[in-house]
Amino acid sequence: MNRDAGTAADNPLVTIGITAYNAADTIARAVASARAQTWPCTEIVIVDDCSGDETPAVLKRLAAGPVDMRVFHQAANGGVAAARNRIVEEARGAFIAFFDDDDTSVPERVERQLARILAYERDHAGGAPVVCHTARRQLFADGSARIVPTMGIRADRPAPAGWAVAERVLIGSPLRGGYGACAACSQMARTSVFREFGGFDPAFRRGEDTDMAIRLAKAGAHFVGIEAALVEQSMTATPDKSLSGERDFALKLLEKHRDVPDRYGLFNFCREWIEAKHTWLEGRRAACLARLLSLAVRHPSRTFLRLAAAMRNWGLNADFRRFHTRGPAAR
What we know:
The chain is an alpha/beta fold. The chain has helices spanning 27-35, 55-63, 80-90, 109-125, 163-171, 191-196, 208-218, 243-256, 259-262, 267-281, 285-298, 300-312, 314-325; strands spanning 14-20, 42-48, 69-73, 95-100, 103-105, 130-139, 145-148, 188-190, 222-234.
């Protein structure tokens, strides 16, 4: 790492931030991925969220290598949002790229995301915040894989931005170029963006990245993407990843940002849609159909739009259901 070079506007330092929790078996691979990045000005900041396994010992060994990595240990387990906030606090870079403790990124990831952000800031942003995500290749325990796209991949026109992104996420409004995920494990933005908006909400142990995206969207942020899957995401089953947990955090997110659906009188519709989706994911098809019919009677056009979007993501949702209903971890 060359920190002096990182102060130059044309050669900025990028902080690669990794949250770690009970990742003794995978964290070395994640660190190797970070160290293999082609961008020459990087630092690695790792926050261990009070792991109960050998993660701290592994990190101690890894930190004894090249002087490019700083490790911090949380006094208590506060969840991934709190760990990300510690990264934001400790970052010395002008940009932060988040990596996960069980994922790997292609060597060109940081370099390509940085170039995408800088070019977009120059050509389209007009001073607004810019956040960049990439597509991901998800790897499942049964050996199957799936590409998960992100939004804003067209470089020849303005990316999805502002309130329209919040509406797309929360109420399913159509948005050109706005289809795709904004996962934190593929996220990069200026450090000042994360700090200006107060970091991630620690109340969200799941969905903290979606909450951040909505908050940024409300403030006028632009969401640029890279079509290539620059992140390989291991779909690791853990006790906190359950269908009921996903439902609870989706409802919590909707309640926090109810000003978005309330603009159109759609809060109850969105709440019922979440419940309908949950019944489908649980395999209760008759209950799901009953809920959908009820929604269609009262909100025909909106229900059609949501169903069309759901069909578009049928494969992703099927994999999501299979992931949350199989595997060695408690559900």
